[in-house]
Amino acid sequence: MYKEPGFSTLSVQSGEKRKKANHGITDAIHCASTFTFSDTKELIDFLENKPDRDEYIRYSNPNQNVVEAKLAALDGAEKSLLFSSGMAAICCLLLAKLEKGDEVILFDECYHRSREFSRDYLSRWGIVCKFAKTGDFAHLKAQISDRKKLIFTESPTNPHLSVIDIPQLASLAKEHQCELAVDATLATPFNLQAIRFGADYVIHSATKYLAGHNDVVAGVISGREEALESLRSLRGLLGCVSTPHNNYLLQRGLKTFALRMEQHNKNGIEVAQFLESHPKIRKVFYPGLESHSSFLIAKEQMPAWGGLLTFEIEGDRHAASSFVDQLKIPRIGPSLGGVESLVEQPLYMSYNHLSPEARAEVGITDSMIRLSLGVEDTDDLIADLKQALDIV
User: Fold this and answer.
1) Cis upstream peptide for 156 (omega within 30°)
2) Pairing of strands 149-154, 103-107
């Protein structure tokens, strides 16, 4: 009896043809901007029947088609669409699904750029943006009006790693005739398949874990094919497409995705447990720890919790900076999800534009450190953290 393929098999095999150009085992990079027709009849057939072929790179590309099919399989979705970045995907979703008089409701721990676009740009077109306290469904429900709406959340959130009860949120959205979009970048399809829990759209910054090597910028939205048609059309109009070479690198990265996630997950929980037990660490934000406010939800929805964690060190911003500067393995940088470990102080890297009062309002402290664990050996990472903590 045929069994459903496992996640690693899907990562390697899905979306790919058995026989490829020139008999290669990997797909060639198709750098053509234009795809030609042999005669007028073939062109008319394309226009009338829309056969499975490409016309112009702003609409589709052979590398893009393969990766989109692979990502749809991993997300458990009918269809996936690739974009030039995660933010391009988010902005395209909001622009395609909302019009003047509509409203979007976001949880307040969503990525600050997602909040900025919704608050400062959508409002220019008469779209109402509201914020609800993360995970507070009563507060969220109080924000809902009679307007056509979209609810937008992350799970887990960045940098506090709050995990949302997606089945409950999906039920609430359906009750009020809202569509639900979940940015699952930190979870990845390996740790969370939000569509199976009722989300209408799942978004990933493919720059992070999906590509996994800190050398790609791309975004993806997964969902029902019919629901994504307006996004596909707007993507072609705006031209916010991922390039053939980017798509090739993303496809290559996805083939080791499951293997990498195993190590990211291992590093995440073991480093979180080490830090929580250390006397110089005030608090650790990691949903795999029982001390985290989202632990029970995370345990129910996710088999593991990824390689990103946030913690507060004893002392002030200078103590945090001293600790960061003593680390030998992680490098200071703003991204996450790659094979190399990265570290940052949110105070400087992402929230330096806010006043101390505004940072306090969104839970960003001076002593907070965000650590994106790569796939280095767990023991080496813990030893490095220990030596840095011994110095400060």
Assistant:
1) yes
2) parallel
Nearest to 135 by CA among 95, 101, 172, 165: 165
pTM above threshold 0.90:
yes
Residue 263: burial class (beta carbons within 10 Å; 0-12, 13-18, 19+)? middle
Tens of pLDDT, residue by residue over 169-210, are 999 999 999 999 999 999 999 999 999 999 999 999 999 999
Q: How far is CA 39 from the centre of its chain?
A: 43
Please compute, for residue 320, the number of CA atoms within 13 A of its CA located in the half-sphere on the CB side.
23
C-alpha atoms less than 13 angstroms from C-alpha of 148 in its C-beta half-sphere = 9
- Beta strands 308-313 and 368-372, pairing class: antiparallel
Three-state secondary structure call for residue 131:
strand
Distances (CA, A) of 367 to 63, 286, 318, 326, 348: 44, 16, 8, 15, 11
Round to whole Å and give the CA distance between 104 and 63: 33
What is the C-alpha separation between 71 and 361, in angstroms, rounded? 36
- Amino acid of residue 192: L
Rounded to the nearest 10 degrees, the angle between the axes of helix 378-391 and helix 317-326 is 130
- Strands 103-107 and 281-285 turn out to be unpaired
Does position 1 have pLDDT exceeding 50, yes or no? no
